[in-house]
């Protein structure tokens, strides 16, 4: 994509040179030009030169016939040249505006850091990597976490129930000695009349002592 | 005596003991009108002949739009609290509530699903129940749109289950926000919807606690009764296969013929 503009610039220079050439060479110079660089004015110059030469040939009716055809051909050439030049001008303007746009985009920076409007197509989302609350985890990960949570919750419920059973004396405390007996009575008493926090403390303390003694 | 009945758990709290069959909320939309346990069920409970029912969990799935108060309803019942702040449920949550029904221990596992659309694909995986869950479709009594959406919620829940095996409840929440004519109007529309979905209708308020305990007791009793009946039926048919002397007596009084005489089973169960 870098090449065409360069060539254009060269061409521009050539054009300028030839304009100067033509000015020097006069109307005849137009016939020596490259056909791709002809302008409407060149065509007029050519028709002036040819008209003059035809006149010099005199009033032979064959010359008059040929003159009509030559005029027609020159008209066609004029149309082609002006149409072509117009198209070239349009393309040149379009090229310039596109060039400006590219330069503008290059100045802003690469598109992924720009955060500008990027058309990703349907069903796509742009994620801002600097947003601490950006979506990060997959659906499967959430599913797994929920399953784990549910599993732990049911285990907790079972453990709580079991604890409740021990507290209410439904399950006997392991290895009851005379001391254990007393412990259980205290627990039962507590379960029957949701008692004061003071008593609760002592029971927990007793339980703690009990289990400590067992382990040592 | 109780300890011999409940070898796997502490005694249930007094307000979870259901001795007589809990009543419906409105006779215009209820699953059954009778006021006592099914004869076979009472008899089985008295003889302590309820098989493994007492060890079983019945699954309850609560569905409905976001912010209608599914979590609040469950929290009011299970923990007796009401939190004014809204916190969206992520995916699913559950609570287990233990009852003693007609002397038999019985538990409900209540699944609280997220109402937000984005969690639907996760929550819907929990809709399925082994023997037909209880489906509670909740809506906000003050928002008629949420009532309209219950139809879709029910459809989604039923897709995962055999329609005839499920008990369906339609529950209008936030009853405390309505009164008088507005409340009557909302309830009339809800009853209409409930009849279309063959559901039992209840109006509740998690904030005041109105009807919350009565509603869940009703759910538990209906689920329990169905479990016992299914259990009896299964054991009877097992005995039939063995082909012992009980064969003739079984033919005389199959539990199914009793079922069909019930006034309003509404094609459910």
TrEMBL record, chain A:
<feature type="coiled-coil region">
    <location>
        <begin position="74"/>
        <end position="108"/>
    </location>
</feature>
<protein>
    <recommendedName>
        <fullName>RILP-like protein 2</fullName>
    </recommendedName>
</protein>
<keyword id="KW-0813">Transport</keyword>
<dbReference type="GO" id="GO:0042802">
    <property type="term" value="F:identical protein binding"/>
</dbReference>
<dbReference type="InterPro" id="IPR034743">
    <property type="entry name" value="RH1"/>
</dbReference>
<feature type="compositionally biased region" description="Acidic residues">
    <location>
        <begin position="8"/>
        <end position="22"/>
    </location>
</feature>
<dbReference type="GO" id="GO:0005813">
    <property type="term" value="C:centrosome"/>
</dbReference>
<keyword id="KW-0963">Cytoplasm</keyword>
<keyword id="KW-0966">Cell projection</keyword>
<comment type="function">
    <text>Involved in cell shape and neuronal morphogenesis, positively regulating the establishment and maintenance of dendritic spines. Plays a role in cellular protein transport, including protein transport away from primary cilia. May function via activation of RAC1 and PAK1.</text>
</comment>
<dbReference type="GO" id="GO:0036064">
    <property type="term" value="C:ciliary basal body"/>
</dbReference>
<dbReference type="InterPro" id="IPR034744">
    <property type="entry name" value="RH2"/>
</dbReference>
<dbReference type="GO" id="GO:1903445">
    <property type="term" value="P:protein transport from ciliary membrane to plasma membrane"/>
</dbReference>
<feature type="domain" description="RH1">
    <location>
        <begin position="26"/>
        <end position="108"/>
    </location>
</feature>
<feature type="domain" description="RH2">
    <location>
        <begin position="134"/>
        <end position="206"/>
    </location>
</feature>
<keyword id="KW-0175">Coiled coil</keyword>
<dbReference type="InterPro" id="IPR051241">
    <property type="entry name" value="DZIP_RILPL"/>
</dbReference>
<feature type="region of interest" description="Disordered">
    <location>
        <begin position="1"/>
        <end position="36"/>
    </location>
</feature>
<dbReference type="GO" id="GO:0005829">
    <property type="term" value="C:cytosol"/>
</dbReference>
<dbReference type="Pfam" id="PF09744">
    <property type="entry name" value="RH1"/>
</dbReference>
<dbReference type="GO" id="GO:0016020">
    <property type="term" value="C:membrane"/>
</dbReference>
<dbReference type="GO" id="GO:0003382">
    <property type="term" value="P:epithelial cell morphogenesis"/>
</dbReference>
UniProtKB/TrEMBL annotation, chain B:
<keyword id="KW-0636">Prenylation</keyword>
<keyword id="KW-0653">Protein transport</keyword>
<dbReference type="Pfam" id="PF00071">
    <property type="entry name" value="Ras"/>
</dbReference>
<keyword id="KW-0472">Membrane</keyword>
<keyword id="KW-0378">Hydrolase</keyword>
<keyword id="KW-0333">Golgi apparatus</keyword>
<keyword id="KW-0449">Lipoprotein</keyword>
<keyword id="KW-0813">Transport</keyword>
<dbReference type="GO" id="GO:0005525">
    <property type="term" value="F:GTP binding"/>
</dbReference>
<protein>
    <recommendedName>
        <fullName>Ras-related protein Rab-36</fullName>
        <ecNumber>3.6.5.2</ecNumber>
    </recommendedName>
</protein>
<dbReference type="InterPro" id="IPR001806">
    <property type="entry name" value="Small_GTPase"/>
</dbReference>
<keyword id="KW-0460">Magnesium</keyword>
<dbReference type="InterPro" id="IPR050227">
    <property type="entry name" value="Rab"/>
</dbReference>
<keyword id="KW-0342">GTP-binding</keyword>
<feature type="compositionally biased region" description="Low complexity">
    <location>
        <begin position="253"/>
        <end position="269"/>
    </location>
</feature>
<feature type="region of interest" description="Disordered">
    <location>
        <begin position="243"/>
        <end position="269"/>
    </location>
</feature>
<dbReference type="InterPro" id="IPR027417">
    <property type="entry name" value="P-loop_NTPase"/>
</dbReference>
<dbReference type="GO" id="GO:0046872">
    <property type="term" value="F:metal ion binding"/>
</dbReference>
<keyword id="KW-0547">Nucleotide-binding</keyword>
<dbReference type="GO" id="GO:0015031">
    <property type="term" value="P:protein transport"/>
</dbReference>
<comment type="function">
    <text>The small GTPases Rab are key regulators of intracellular membrane trafficking, from the formation of transport vesicles to their fusion with membranes. Rabs cycle between an inactive GDP-bound form and an active GTP-bound form that is able to recruit to membranes different sets of downstream effectors directly responsible for vesicle formation, movement, tethering and fusion.</text>
</comment>
<dbReference type="InterPro" id="IPR005225">
    <property type="entry name" value="Small_GTP-bd"/>
</dbReference>
């Amino acid at each position: 994509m870098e090449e065409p503009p360069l060539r254009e610039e060269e061409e521009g220079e050539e054009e300028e040179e030839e304009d100067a050439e033509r000015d020097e060479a006069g109307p005849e110079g137009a016939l020596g030009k490259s056909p791709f660089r002809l302008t409407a004015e060149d065509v007029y110059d050519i028709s002036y030169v040819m008209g003059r030469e035809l006149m010099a040939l005199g009033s032979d009716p064959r010359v008059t016939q040929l003159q009509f055809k030559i005029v027609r051909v020159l008209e066609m050439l004029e149309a082609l040249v002006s149409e072509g030049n117009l198209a070239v001008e349009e393309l040149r303007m379009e090229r310039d505006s596109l060039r400006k746009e590219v330069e503008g985009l290059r100045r802003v920076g690469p598109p992924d850091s720009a955060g500008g409007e990027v058309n990703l197509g349907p069903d796509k989302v742009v994620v801002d990597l600097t947003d601490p609350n950006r979506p990060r985890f997959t659906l499967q990960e959430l599913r797994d976490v929920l399953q784990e949570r549910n599993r732990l919750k049911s285990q907790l419920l079972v453990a709580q129930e079991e604890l409740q059973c021990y507290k209410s004396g439904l399950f006997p405390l392991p290895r009851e000695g005379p001391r254990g007996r007393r412990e259980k009575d205290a627990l039962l008493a507590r379960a029957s009349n949701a008692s004061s926090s003071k008593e609760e403390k002592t029971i927990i303390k007793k339980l703690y002592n009990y289990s400590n003694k067992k382990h040592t | 005596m109780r300890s011999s009945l409940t070898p796997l758990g502490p005694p249930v709290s007094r307000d979870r003991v259901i001795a007589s069959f809990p009543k419906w909320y409105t006779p215009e939309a209820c699953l059954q009108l009778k006021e006592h346990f099914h004869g076979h069920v009472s008899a089985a409970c008295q003889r302590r002949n309820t098989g493994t029912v007492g060890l079983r969990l019945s699954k309850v799935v609560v569905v409905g739009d976001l912010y209608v108060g599914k979590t609040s309803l469950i929290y009011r019942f299970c923990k007796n609290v009401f939190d004014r702040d809204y916190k969206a449920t992520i995916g699913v949550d559950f609570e287990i509530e233990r009852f003693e029904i007609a002397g038999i221990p019985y538990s409900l596992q209540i699944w609280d699903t997220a109402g937000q659309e984005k969690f639907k694909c996760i929550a819907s995986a929990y809709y399925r129940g082994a023997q037909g869950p209880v489906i509670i479709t909740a809506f906000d009594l003050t928002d008629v749109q949420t009532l309209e959406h219950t139809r879709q919620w029910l459809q989604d829940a039923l897709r995962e289950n055999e329609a005839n095996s499920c008990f369906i409840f339609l529950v209008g929440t936030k009853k405390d926000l309505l009164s008088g004519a507005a409340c009557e109007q909302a309830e009339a529309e809800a009853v209409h919807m409930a009849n279309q979905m063959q559901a039992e209708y209840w109006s509740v308020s998690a904030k005041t606690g109105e009807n919350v305990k009565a509603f869940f007791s009703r759910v538990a009793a209906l689920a329990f009764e169905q479990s016992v009946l299914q259990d009896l039926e299964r054991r009877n048919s097992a005995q039939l296969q063995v082909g012992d002397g009980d064969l003739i007596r079984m033919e005389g009084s199959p539990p199914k013929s009793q079922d069909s005489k019930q006034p309003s089973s509404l094609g459910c169960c």
